[in-house]
Structures are given as C-alpha cells and as structure tokens.
Amino acid sequence: MKLGLIGYPIKYSLSPWIHEQFLQASGIEGEYELFEIKPDTSLKKVIKDMKKSGVKGVNVTVPYKQQIIPYLDGLDPVASSIGAVNTIMVANGKMIGYNTDGVGYIKGLNDMYPDFLSRQTKCLIIGAGGAARSIYVTLSKYGIKHMDIVNRTQESAEDIALLGEKHTATNVLSWREAENKAGYYDILIQTTSIGMKPKINEMIMSLDNVKEGSVVSDIIYQPIHTTFLEHAKRNNALILPGHVMLLYQAKEAFEIWTNQKRNVTHLIEPLQHILEGR
Ligand code: NAP
User: Fold this and answer.
1) Residues 122-144: pLDDT tens digits?
2) Residue numbers annotated as active site
3) N or C: which end of the chain has fewer CB within 10 A?
C-alpha cells in the first residue's frame, strides 16, 4: 500500500516512522513516502500525478492544509466545517479530504486521562490557527458546553467561535482576561507555535492562576516538555504533551485508509525517545 505526506518542509517528519509501525503491526506491505512540494508548485498537477501513482492515502501538513481543498473531489463533513484537511483517502480515482487533528487530540486526552472529558469540562483554547480550528470544532461536536479562545489576532478567534454548535458558549478573551481566568478552566490547550524549537524558552501566557488537577496541554511536540508545560507542572496541573496527539491523529488517518484499528499507547514512549534524541 502506497502512503505519503505532502508538505513543505517535511524532511524531518515523524509520520514515516509512525505509519511504518502501523503497516508492520497490520501485516500490510507498503511504504510511506515524503512528497516535499515547494510552495510555488501547481497543486493541480501534484494531485493529478498522485492519482496516477496509485497512492492510497496521503497526509497533508503545512502549508497545504487549506490550499489543497479546491483540488479534492470531496470532503468529509468534519473537514468541511473545519475548512482544512490533514488526510486524503484515494478511492476509485477520487480524493476525499478528512481532518483527524481534533479527534486525535480528544483520543490522546482520553488515553492519558480516561474519563476526564465530559460535556461540562470548561476549556480554554490558546491560539486560533488550523490546529485550533480542528480541536475547537471537534470538541464542540463532542458536546462541550463552555470553550473560550484567546489568540494574538482576535478576528481569527472570533471566526472559530462561529464554527461551534449551538450548545457551545464561547467568549473570545484578551491575554489579560485569559491569564486572570486560567483557574476557571479544566483544560487549557496551547495550539500556537510559541515555544517550538529553537525558541524553547518562549511561553505564550502565564499559568500562575491555573488550578491544581486541571489538564494543561501543548500540541507542540518539539520539544516535548515545552516551557509552557513545565510551568503547568510547577503549578500542580496535569500535563498532556503534543506527541500524544501526533500519534493519535496518525492512527485516525491510518484507520481511514485501511479500515484497521491500531493501538498506539505502546508507541508513546518510543516516540518520546526519538524526539528527545533530536
Ligand atoms: P497555524 O495555522 O499557522 O497557527 C499558528 C498559531 O500560532 C496562530 O494562533 C497564531 O496566531 C499563533 N502565533 C504564531 N506566531 C505567534 C506569535 N509570535 N505570537 C502569538 N501567537 C502567534 O499553525 P497550526 O497548523 O495551527 O499549528 C500550530 C502548532 O501546532 C505548530 O507548532 C504545529 O507544529 C503544532 N501541531 C501539532 C500537531 C500534533 O499532532 N501535535 C498537529 C497540528 C499542529 P495569529 O492567528 O495571531 O497569527
């Protein structure tokens, strides 16, 4: 089975390692190839070539998660409301787009902290980019009743708030409001790129007021232990690092392609070692 990833730059992507584990465990012969597409390339041609190549499934990463949509033959309803795609399934010559980031986030959370998430869970989403959109839409569909957003560009946060289901009440906060109110939330989800390698000492907002026993997650996975998570730990919060979501969003993609369910819990530690060795 031919699988792959479209994006730029993707030389150091961990997706080949993850999907090779899945292929082996499933007993499926296959390969996961990196299709590094430079930004000035015609996506129309890329899609045409992919259809010809016999590829069965493709992941999509920055900067193409939104740009690729007009070239696809269809979108699954979740990807359609998110407006971004991270997984493409090729069937009968048609390419259908999906988004597994949000469901990957929730499943990773449920793996690390079973029974923590309920409709009453109060969430704060920090950031309003593509990943935040996916997590917000999926949590709202899950039934979350109260989910606030804080972002540098408030308009982007307001756009995301429009994507919620009727039962989800959302306020767009300023940084000061978010910091003062941090203790109100059961889960805080850091989705910006602040704190990523090499600027590992940066932190998007203070966690001084976070409440003990709340879950603080950072979807950044390079480094795994971001400054944000270190601060959360010091304030007695539980932490959820980004490589867990990375594994679960990949698991969801693999299931779409192969219809096979894979267990990923045993891969969390090996992936952590790989990332820590970089
Ligand atoms: P994106 O669409 O480009 O969004 C970037 C976000 O970061 C926006 O909210 C942006 O705010 C904020 N931001 C960027 N620079 C900032 C700055 N200097 N000050 C304040 N805010 C800033 O990116 P994305 O695709 O959502 O990805 C975001 C992060 O999540 C990346 O680190 C990516 O690697 C990670 N990610 C992880 C997984 C996983 O599986 N663990 C999956 C997807 C993404 P503005 O709106 O104001 O620009």
Assistant:
1) 999 999 999 999 999 999 999 99
2) 65
3) C
